[in-house]
Write a structure and sequence with these properties.
Layout (H helix, E strand, L loop, with lengths): L9 H16 L4 E4 L12 E5 L2 E10 L5 H6 L1 H12 L7 E8 L11 H15 L5 E2 L21 E6 L8 E6 L5 H25 L3 E8 L7 H14 L6 E6 L6 E8 L2 E2 H7 L4 E3 L7 H4 L1
Parallel strand pairs: 3-8, 4-7, 5-6, 8-9
Antiparallel strand pairs: 1-2, 2-3, 4-6, 9-10, 10-11, 10-12
């Protein structure tokens, strides 16, 4: 948990997606420019050429709900001791996900916080060895929820196989209890798309292949599937959708995850069936294009 950056990373996310295109096509980018810095009438983040095809790339961050910024800003204080407390003490080779109500720790006073954190660590370590292991991406049912001694809110713990390449064996997911959680995400992604699609459409009219890059920096509330569903709902309502939509998940250590959410008429689920859906990148090896172009 310590040292995780919960900000957005326009330049590095766009570089990750461009590297994916370069690897797929076997062609290096050329003529990389920033229409935004050049005050173009359609100020997308970057344009470049791959062979004779012009690409236009626009980035936007995905925020799941109001108050998310505060939650992320306080994440180290509230959850860092929990991550540290279970580190190296869980059954090997599996991924454990602790589900906790969103904003729950914000109701705890400063004096209460260490005792509550210690109680959560004790509960996780006592439950983890006896949980049923399921494939990654699934949840064992029925979901068992408990309010452990010393913890004034409900918790649930889940165990799955750990994806290849993922070093972390424990994560905390914040669960929004409101029935409007999905609606809130849908509104935010719709608003983001309504701002970005027209700029990309202008570049498409100039002969560019238009690429929208979404960035998810929230491991607790979001995942590629729910973001895709919100994107698909927005695209049904908006004209001029871009040619491709990619997602870069930047809250994972030590690697970022890259997914294709839609390519032309192919959906996230169809792309997943075709294989090779997820690509990982070490963020330290990525270039912040915002600083170099």
């Amino acid at each position: 948990m310590t040292g995780v950056d919960f900000g957005f990373h326009e330049g590095k996310c766009c570089d990750a997606v461009l590297r994916w295109f370069e690897a797929r096509l076997g062609i290096e980018r050329a003529d990389l420019r920033s229409p935004e810095k050049a005050l173009d009438a359609a100020p997308v983040e970057f344009t470049c050429r791959l062979s004779d095809q012009l690409y236009a790339i626009e980035h936007t961050g995905v925020e799941p709900f109001d108050g998310h910024v505060r939650l992320q800003a306080e994440a180290e204080r509230d959850f860092g001791p929990i991550y540290s407390g279970v580190a190296g003490r869980l059954p090997a080779d599996d991924l454990f996900q602790l589900h906790i109500p969103a904003r729950a720790m914000q109701t705890i006073t400063r004096r209460q916080r260490p005792a509550v954190q210690a109680a959560i660590v004790h509960w996780v370590l006592s439950k983890a060895p006896y949980l049923v292991r399921v494939p990654f991406g699934r949840v064992a049912t029925p979901i068992m929820k408990e309010t452990p001694p010393g913890v004034p809110f409900v918790l649930s713990l889940h165990r799955s196989t750990r994806p290849v390449g993922l070093e972390r064996d424990f994560s905390i997911s914040h669960i929004v209890q409101s029935a409007d959680a999905e609606a809130d995400r849908a509104v935010r992604i719709y608003q983001a798309c309504s701002r970005k699609f027209p700029k990309l459409a202008e570049w498409k009219s100039r002969g560019a292949r238009s690429i929208l890059v979404l960035e998810d920096n929230d491991l607790q509330l979001s995942n590629p599937q729910v973001i895709y569903e919100a994107l698909a709902a927005a695209e049904r309502r908006l004209p001029d959708r871009p040619d491709e939509v990619h997602l870069v998940v930047t809250c994972i250590e030590p690697e970022w995850w890259h997914f294709r959410l839609r390519v032309d008429s192919l959906t996230y689920y169809q792309l997943s069936q075709l294989g090779g859906q997820m690509t990982t990148y070490d963020p330290a090896t990525l270039t912040d294009l915002m600083m170099t172009v």
